[in-house]
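## Example pair
The file below holds two records. Each record gives the amino-acid sequence first, followed by its structure token line.
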Amino acid sequence: MAQAWSASKAPSATSRKKKAVAFDSSFLIAVMQSPTPWMEDIADIVGAFVPVVLTSVRDELKRLAAKDDKTGKFAGLALELVDLGRLSLVQDGRGKPDDEIISFALNEGAAVATIDSDLAERLRASKVRTVIMLHGGRVST
């Protein structure tokens, strides 16, 4: 899979780079359906962070938002977060979203937020250090 994204500038000796947290579509749709203090919960776990949506995930959200159903409505709300700049859009290699998320997490040392148990299992098997899940409306690792 091609890697179109690149690492951010290296932090200076006096500044500390914020950890990236990549979000998959399942997590974003879930928090749109049942609003929680998920951003604050994640900050409690990883500290200051940059919320990231990869372009393949954005495209998946667009496909879901085009459907005239409940999931489509919540996918559209998640897309609004990207459009408003609340989530940083990062170009990826245009592979399957789960593959791109794993690649990004490994290469950038990023955490990943998902409710997809299959993706979480693949992330842990790939040695991604922080996998953030949603349990009972609250964020946990």
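Second record, same layout:
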Amino acid sequence: MTLPEIRQAGPEALCEVHAINRVCFAESWSLRALEDALCAGAELRLCVGEKVWAYLLSQDVLDETHVLQIAVLPEARGHGMASALMLSLMEAKRTQRRILLEVRSSNEAARRLYQKLGFARIGVRPRYYGARPGQAAEDAEVLALDMERDALP
């Protein structure tokens, strides 16, 4: 699979984003919540080929950028889409002080990606992710990339 194009999008892409959201997250956001995030100034990046394969939703708050969500369709994982989305964000946010995100403690693949990109753990949010059937609530690791000091890959 060739790496699809990374581009910014707006509300016109929310139906496709919502469909990916529902596949990728047990605690999926409603279409309304995604619309509200865009109305509040969130930015949406897509990984697009013959269809939308992945997305990244981020929000600037003063001199920080917070990654609200990043999702890749299961059949497209392992092809560098999450990495391409993150690198696109990092390039666009060079003037920000830092980029923040939360990642599920058990999400080894995502944690490896963020570590490779230079993110460091700055905290833990206990039981941040709600319990799922047969599983306990899960902690989130809070990660940050200091844009002033860290060299971008």
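Notes on the second record: DSSP finds four helices and seven strands in the chain. The longest strand covers residues 52-61.
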